[in-house]
Amino acid sequence: MDLSNLKPAQGSTKSRKRIGRGQGSGYGGTSTRGHKGAKSRSGYHRKIGFEGGQMPLYRLLPKFGFKNINRVEYTGINLDTLEILAEKLQTKDLTLEVLRNNSKEKIKILGRGEVKSALNVTANAISKSAKLAIEAKGGVVTII
């Protein structure tokens, strides 16, 4: 036995079905596509979701949801983050340029955490609890 007489096992391989090669092949005429109808034509493509004429599922189910085009997205920054940032930069004035970190997002100050010193904060929006906490320590809040 050597490499020159290796063959696949008997019956393990089949030749492919050559359709549309004349009547004598047994696959001529309709070329296994049946008679007439869209599926027998060249270029046939069934639409996505087509269920044979039955009402498709995507049309049976109701629409839902709403996307408000006027919604304003804010990036929230909490009081404890403001305190850490003020200590890190060693400043009491926290402007939008400092808070934004070189992006165009709108900033909203939120009330989680505590403020230990008087901070001068400039932001696009602020929650009531955050405003009370900053002003209680003698800080100033400016809303743009």
Describe this entry's structure for a reader.
The protein has 144 residues and is of the alpha/beta class. It is 20% helix and 15% strand. It has four helices and six strands. The chain has helices at 57-60, 79-89, 96-100, 128-136, and strands spanning 74-78, 93-94, 106-110, 120-123, 125-126, 140-143. The mean pLDDT is 92.
Main sheet attributes: strand count, strand direction, barrel closure: 3 strands, parallel
Q: What is the helix content?
A: 10-25%
| Beta-strand percentage range | 15-25%
User: What is the chain-wise order of helices and strands?
Assistant: HEHEHEEEHE
Oligomer: single chain
What's the gist of this structure?
With 144 residues, the protein is an alpha/beta fold. Helices cover 20% and strands 15% of the residues.
SSE map:
Elements: H1 57-60, E1 74-78, H2 79-89, E2 93-94, H3 96-100, E3 106-110, E4 120-123, E5 125-126, H4 128-136, E6 140-143
Parallel strand pairs: 1-3, 2-4, 3-5, 4-6
Kindly list the characteristics that best describe this protein.
144 residues; alpha/beta; three-stranded parallel β-sheet; 4 helices
